[in-house]
């Protein structure tokens, strides 16, 4: 109520100024009436003009004060909301009117509570992924030791990949995804990723092709295991949305001091208008009847986390094959944090 009280007092001051001006105008007019002829008319016009100028000046001064006061209040609130949106500390201003200061304090509490919730969520995801790694790795090892068939082994391997993807996304959210940089052959990574995905491609009836361009310089320094994980996630996503008889084309091409890795799939692919949503964890681009909730994809979120850890960029666009193209551009020598 303090802001409202101040506004009311300001209005009273403005009204008082107008009343004073009106009295001055009345006095000037009465004085002019005591004159005669043209002198009286000139005096009346002069009095009216002076009063109008003074009134306009008073209105301008009062209006400017109102405008500056409200602009300052709005600027404080806008800065606070922008800080909340950017996850930055909200700057409190105890000199502000009570309502504004209290509003800033409430925004600061909301931002702090949200940050604690987000931090807890990320920590829980990392803990869950870490706890799941040991039993899942044991399941994979046991299945391989028993000589399990491919059909029996595939769900366990997929579970292990989901756990690794979840761990990568959670660690990246916390800014703690470790990167072990070493000289890496992009062609070898592409061939390994294609070799691992070939049985799934054969089963889906999709042709998996590879195009490579050799670089004249030295090898880039990447975390090879993470880049292979990235490629595997993208290929698996393309296999899910490429119909039987379709194609997936893997490419690696040097571009100056960087490399561009691409995964193209044929039509129908994913709606490119939803490209921005593709990078949200657990986003599914289409509701396929044969899919269950376990097929909700972490592919793009995982890829983005690994790319950001290597200081690169990832983009989704329309593929020359008619489906989706995912292009990953990685520097040959990522900066060391």
Characterise the protein shown here:
With 337 residues, this protein is α+β, with helices and mostly antiparallel strands. Helix content is 60%, strand content 13%. The chain is built from seven helices and seven strands; from the N terminus they run ααααβαββαββαββ. The strands form two sheets. It has a five-stranded mixed beta sheet. A hairpin with a 2-residue loop joins β4 (247-255) and β5. α3 (98-145) packs antiparallel against α4 and α6 (224-241) packs antiparallel against α7 (299-309).
Describe the secondary-structure layout.
Layout: H1 2-33, H2 37-85, H3 98-145, H4 150-173, E1 182-183, H5 186-204, E2 207-212, E3 221-222, H6 224-241, E4 247-255, E5 258-266, H7 299-309, E6 313-318, E7 322-331
Parallel strand pairs: 2-4
Antiparallel strand pairs: 1-3, 4-5, 5-7, 6-7
Helix pairs in contact: 1-2, 2-3, 3-4, 4-7, 5-6, 6-7
Unreliable stretches (pLDDT < 50, length at least 5) are 287-296
Beta-strand share of residues: 5-15%
> Mean of the pLDDT scores?
76
Distance between the termini: 50 Å
Specify the number of helices.
7
User: What is the radius of gyration?
Assistant: 35 Å
List the keywords.
elongated, five-stranded mixed beta sheet, alpha+beta, about 325 residues, two-stranded antiparallel ribbon
Q: In summary, what is this structure?
A:
By secondary structure, the protein is α+β, with helices and mostly antiparallel strands.
């Amino acid at each position: 109520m303090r802001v409202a009280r101040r506004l009311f007092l300001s209005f009273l001051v403005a009204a008082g100024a107008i009343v004073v001006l009106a009295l001055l105008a009345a006095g000037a007019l009465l004085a002019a009436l005591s004159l005669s002829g043209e002198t009286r008319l000139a005096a009346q016009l002069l009095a009216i003009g002076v009063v109008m100028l003074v009134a306009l000046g008073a209105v301008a001064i009062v209006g400017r004060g109102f405008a500056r006061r409200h602009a300052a209040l709005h600027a404080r609130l806008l800065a606070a909301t922008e800080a909340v949106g950017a996850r930055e500390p909200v700057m409190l201003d105890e000199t502000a009117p009570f309502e504004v200061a209290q509003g800033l304090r409430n925004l600061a509490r909301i931002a702090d509570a949200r940050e604690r919730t987000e931090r807890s969520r990320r920590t829980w995801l990392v803990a869950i992924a870490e706890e799941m790694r040991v039993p899942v790795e044991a399941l994979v090892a046991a299945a391989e030791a028993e000589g399990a068939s491919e059909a029996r082994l595939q769900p366990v391997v997929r579970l292990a990949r989901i756990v690794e993807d979840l761990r990568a996304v959670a660690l990246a959210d916390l800014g703690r995804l470790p990167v072990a940089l070493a000289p890496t052959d992009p062609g070898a990574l592409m061939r390994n990723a294609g070799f691992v995905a070939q049985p799934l491609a054969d089963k889906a009836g999709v042709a998996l092709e590879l195009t490579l361009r050799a670089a004249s310089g030295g090898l880039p320094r990447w975390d090879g295991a993470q880049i292979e994980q990235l490629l595997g996630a993208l290929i698996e996503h393309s296999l899910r949305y490429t119909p039987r008889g379709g194609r997936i084309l893997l490419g690696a091409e040097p571009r100056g001091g960087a490399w561009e890795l691409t995964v193209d799939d044929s039509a129908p692919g994913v709606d490119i208008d939803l490209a921005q949503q593709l990078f949200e964890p657990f986003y599914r681009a289409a509701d396929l009847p044969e899919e269950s909730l376990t097929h909700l994809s972490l592919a793009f979120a995982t890829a983005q986390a690994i790319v950001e850890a290597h200081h690169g960029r990832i983009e989704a666009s329309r593929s020359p094959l008619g489906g989706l193209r995912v292009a990953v551009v990685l520097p040959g020598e990522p900066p060391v944090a």
